[in-house]
Amino acid sequence: MTTPAEALQLILTRVAPLPPRTLPLAEALGLAAAEAITSTEQVPPFTNSAMDGYAVRAGDLAAASPEHLVRLRVLGDLAAGAMADQAVAAGTAWRIMTGAPLPEGADSVVPVEDTERGADWVEVHRPLRKGIHIRLAGEDIQAGLALVVAGCALRPGDLGVLAAVGLSSVNVHPRPRVAVLTTGDELVDASERPGPGQIRDANIHAICAQVAACGAIPIPFARVRDDRATLTGVLREALRADAILTTGGISVGDYDFVKAILEELGAERVFWKVAQKPGGPLGFWRLGDKPIFGIPGNPVAAMLMVEEYVRPALRRLMGFAKLHRPVAEARLEGGWSGKAGDHRTTFLRVIARREAGHLQARLTGPQGSAILSSMLHTNALAVIPAGMDLVEPGGAVTLHLTDEAEDH
Ligand code: AMP
Ligand code: MG
Q1: In whole angstroms, what is the distance from residue 245 CA to residue 293 CA?
Q2: Strands 395-401 vs 92-96: parallel, antiparallel or unpaired
Q3: Taking the CB of residue 91, how many other CB atoms lie within 10 A of it?
Q4: Distance between the two ends of the chain, CA-based, in angstroms?
């Protein structure tokens, strides 16, 4: 059986970023830049006022004090966006608003608070340091400054900076469209009342949400009955997406057709079954360069498989340099015991919290692979290596921090 590390390696060496596209900034939030971006312009583009006040020559005010007010003649008003039509000469000033270009001849701005205003004059009652309250052209961003590196998710601040230097579109890896199929004769929609022997389809919602949380676009397909012909037809249609996820029908039951049909359709099997709990029968295929994941139907297993294997693959399709969740060490309150001699990695659903500088984790409740409520409130997975069957109360465990809020 393939180990989790081998499975990840097999997947990630077979998935490449989708070809980049140029998108307007408004569509680029959260996507990975496909190339490094350098500024070709300077910000601010011109020297301007940092305050509402008066653009002056500092030398004129050297002798100003509360006892000796210096009076300057005001040449006019400069709002942001306006240009002065004459230079500041000795003994004169422009009234200036924040962001307005500093007129020729001026070297400083006196804040309005330090002045008394007259009809066409202003009085200043203290000297000021030359160059104060102005923003120099290029003091924020110089042409040639590295702004964004390839493979990083674009954040709101990045988009603002790109706009400021005149880049209204950006070369990014697009969001993959991910077909999500759930299979099973026993399944009904969340809105339906299950009949005898039926259960509601939890996976379509959980998995589409996981796909969306990665930044990819889930395409939920209509549920598929455990019927060869229907499944074949739907899988053919799903192959139009950038990646395909199926749940259920991947095990060794009499109605588990997914494997056989994928291979009839020409998909190349990379592996089937990973040595982990919950989970097991995860299959990974490729058709051309399209990744196809056959995920077990059990909802806990399904979500863990998406978290541990599909998410990194989708992030690679999206061109992200960082594929994995942050890893941390924690102490497991209450400890844990498993089956002796089990050669599978176990993923425990835990709630992690920071306490006095270290992480404490506790189980979300019973950890059976059919206990979907163990996914409630979980913000981390504790990874128990194969062969380890006991964690003492307070013993150290490795966590994968799965909370999006922590994932930066
Ligand atoms: P399977 O992998 O098809 O053998 O399904 C394994 C278990 O998961 C069975 O108990 C199924 O009823 C259940 N199951 C399969 N698909 C879903 C689903 N979409 N939502 C909830 N439970 C499911
Ligand atoms: Mg089934």
Answers
A1: 5
A2: unpaired
A3: 12
A4: 33
pLDDT at 369: 82
- pLDDT for position 405: 60
Q: Which amino acid is at 342?
A: D
Q: What is the pLDDT of residues 30-50, one digit of tens each?
A: 999 999 999 999 999 999 999
Which amino acid, residue 289? Answer: D
Residue 297 DSSP class? S
State both tokens at 35: 């190339």
CA distances from 37 to 41, 148, 268 (A): 12, 5, 38
Pocket test for ligand 1, best of 183, 189, 199 (most atoms within 8 A of CB): 199
180 lines ligand 1 (CB under 6 A): no
Cβ of 279 less than 6 Å from ligand 1: no
Residue 249 burial class via C-beta count within 10 angstroms: exposed 0-12, middle 13-18, buried 19 and up? buried
Paired sense of beta strands 290-295 and 243-247, if any: parallel
Q: Which helix (H) or strand (E) holds 284?
A: strand 283-287
Which of 305, 318, 292 lies closest to 345 in space, CA to CA? Answer: 305
Query: Does 333 contact ligand 1 (Cβ within 6 A)?
Result: no
**Structure confidence at residue 314 (pLDDT):** 98
Which residues, 6 or more positions from 355, have their beta carbon under 8 angstroms from its beta carbon? none
Cβ(38)–Cβ(146) below 8 Å? yes
Stretches where the chain sits below pLDDT 70 are 404-408
Q: What span, in angstroms and rounded, lies between the C-alpha atoms of 71 and 115?
A: 10
**What is the predicted pLDDT for the residue at 404?**
67
Helices (H), 214-308: 228-238, 258-264, 299-305
* Structure token digits, residue 158: 């990045």
Nearest ligand to the CA of 189 is 1
Contact between residue 54 and residue 75 where contact means Cβ atoms under 8 Å apart: no
* Residue from 356, 354, 250 nearest 301 by CA: 250
pLDDT in the model for residue 370: 84
Beta strands in 82-165 (DSSP E): 92-96, 108-111, 115-117, 121-124, 134-135, 146-148
Please provide residue 308's backbone torsions phi and psi, each rounded to the nearest 5 degrees: -85, -30
Residue 4 beta carbon below 6 angstroms from any ligand 1 atom: no
